[in-house]
Amino acid sequence: MESAEKISKYYHTLRYLKPRQTIGRSFAGLKRRLMLYQSTGIPEKLTGSLKHRTNFLRHDPWNSRNSILEGEFTFLNRTRKYEQAIDWNSADMPMLWRFNLHYFGYLHLLEDGEKESICLDWIRKNPEGKTIGWHPYPLSLRITNWSKEALSRPEVLVSLYSQAAFLYRNLETYHPGNHLLENARALIFAGLFFFGEGEAMRWLRRGVQIIEKELPVQVLPDGGYFERTTMYHALMLENFLDILNVMEEAYIRIPGMKEKACKMGDFLYSLTHPGGEISLFNDSTLEIAPPSGKILRYLKELTGYTPVYRAEFPETGYFVHRGSNLCLIIDGGILGPDYLPAHSHADIFSYELSLFNEKIITDSGVYEYQEGPMRNYVRSTRAHNTVAVDHLDQAECWGSFRLAKRFPPKDVRFFRESCRSTFQGRFEGYRSLIGHGITHHRRIDADEDKGVVSVQDTIKGEGRHLAESFIHLNPSLSLTSEGNKFIIKTGGKTIKIIPESGMPSVEDGWYCDQFGRKLESRVIVLSQDTLPAFISYRIEF
Questions:
Q1: Which DSSP category does 291 fall into?
Q2: Integer angstrom CA distances of residue 198 from 81, 128, 204, 297, 394
Q3: According to the model, what pLDDT value does residue 1 have?
């Protein structure tokens, strides 16, 4: 990266951050390394239990009791077998894989004695503050998972108490998003687990305080999660439901939490395809959060509320047309909160489409969080069902989680009447990134009665500039062509994608519906190399 470009990217990244993010992150790392926090005395003869109204959700799509007992762990589609003993540091594995090992999301798969045995192994090999397992995020998930399992062995209780005390002194206030909410859930769980013992009430009060402060910020008025990723929305809804599960049993209330959870249920239901898969916008994959159906049943058990389909989520920026054979989900919002765009992709006006209960046109998902070619690809505009100009992205995504220049969509409108809907919006980011007055206008029409979805892209400006509109197909589908038509056949049904303007071609892409898994996919590209340009196509079903 040239020095001027590097300076520009840092400037446009840092200018949106809050002081507590830049200063707090540096200080937090130093505090943990030098152990600049006050330890607490541990009460004698600890006891603990966690009352809850209904069963917690349990979710581990990779492992089994037998595999764990044999020393074999699978996360993110990568398997590691430990022949002698678990290497909790596993320096040869990616950081996110090691985080998952320390989460203990698999603990529920084991018998009681086996649970305590593996916890004791972790305790022996992970001295306080010395390993990756003491990072506040995996620490939070482990506290939650250990608390759910009603562990009673004294050594384990002492460790759980020490972990909660450490977290209390090392909260991720510099990461005011899903990480902070996980910190809060862990403090609430530990505070109730050790209720009345030592400093547990301080943990409980701090956890409640965080939720009360963050709830109106991180859950938008329409019920969408403010990081604008469907996967993290599902995870945070589960987080809030867990808190409701334990707090109502303890006669503690957080004002508005139940109502927010119900709105979040509407959002999750609406942005889940008829086949049960969540939409893959921004950093989303299918296997990390529990399936939507399980989360929504958990919601019903705790609140009595049955989620309903809603067409518009204007604050979050998603719009949905759902019919008997059609589910169209459009991303018409900003990329994410300006001060926390870690999970944002350059995907303005992208969409996903299911027909006859099968996903036909899809987002590219996420392969990994580690910086590199695949991370760059999945965040790029080219990896989404929208328009790129001169091979540039709509925003400057860089590193693993950074975002420099970014531009909001404008004049976004959505109309729904009976079996028809229309989405419209304007994107002016390329005026700044390239110049020459380049503006992208998109219109998407859906008509169930006629069995047609049409997409029209007008790229205004002047001069020779390459405009490309991308259509990413589900890799499970076969694609053939007849003249100027692209034909998809699935389940006895025929779907046609018909270019109306723009030069058509087909290129290779990647579909990453799970972390660590990439499938080759086919991408239809419609292009014009002179502005103004008009690119359009229709999908007949």
A1: P
A2: 39, 19, 12, 36, 52
A3: 54
Q: Of the candidates 144, 145, 161, which has an alpha carbon nearest to the alpha carbon of residue 107?
A: 145
φ, ψ at 192 (rounded to 5°): -80, -35
Beta pairing partners, 427: 440
Give the side-chain half-sphere CA count within 13 A for 241: 29
- Under 8 Å between Cβ of 51 and 192: yes
**Amino acid identity, residue 76?**
L
How far is 319 from 60, CA to CA, in rounded Å?
31
CB atoms within 10 A of CB 227: 22
Q: Is the dihedral of CA 382, 388, 392, 394 positive or negative?
A: negative
What does each C-alpha distance from 46 to 42, 43, 87, 117, 121 come to in angstroms? 8, 6, 29, 19, 20
E strand or H helix that includes residue 95: helix 95-103
The Cα diameter of the chain in Å comes to: 79
Q: Which of 369, 88, 366 is nearest to 80 (CA)?
A: 88
Q: What is the pLDDT of residues 88-105, one digit of tens each?
A: 999 999 999 999 999 999
Q: How far apart are CA 79 and CA 516, in angstroms?
A: 11
Report yes or no: 115 and 123 within 8 Å, Cβ to Cβ: no
Q: How confident is the model at residue 60 (pLDDT cuts 50, 70, 90)?
A: very high
pLDDT of 471 strictly over 80: yes
Q: Evaluate whether 245 touches 56 at the Cβ level (below 8 Å).
A: yes
How many other C-beta atoms lie within 10 A of the C-beta of residue 455? Answer: 27
Residue 368, amino acid:
E
Contacts of 283 (CB under 8 A, 6+ apart): 229, 231, 232, 342, 343, 345, 366, 369
pTM above 0.90, yes or no: yes
Task: Give the tens place of pLDDT for each residue, 493-511.
Answer: 999 999 999 999 999 999 9
For the chain, the C-alpha Rg in angstroms (whole number) is: 24
**Quick one: pLDDT band at residue 491, thresholds 50, 70, 90?**
confident
CA angle 35, 39, 43 (to 5 degrees): 155
Distance CA(238)–CA(53), nearest Å, equals 15
- The span from the CA of 262 to the CA of 265, in Å, is 5
CA distances to 68, 323, 415, 538 from 444, rounded to whole Å, are 49, 16, 11, 9
* pLDDT tens profile 138-163: 999 999 999 999 899 999 999 999 99
Neighbours of 480 (CB within 10 A): 9
Predicted confidence band of residue 4 (pLDDT cuts 50, 70, 90): confident
Contacts of 463 (CB under 8 A, 6+ apart): 436, 530, 531
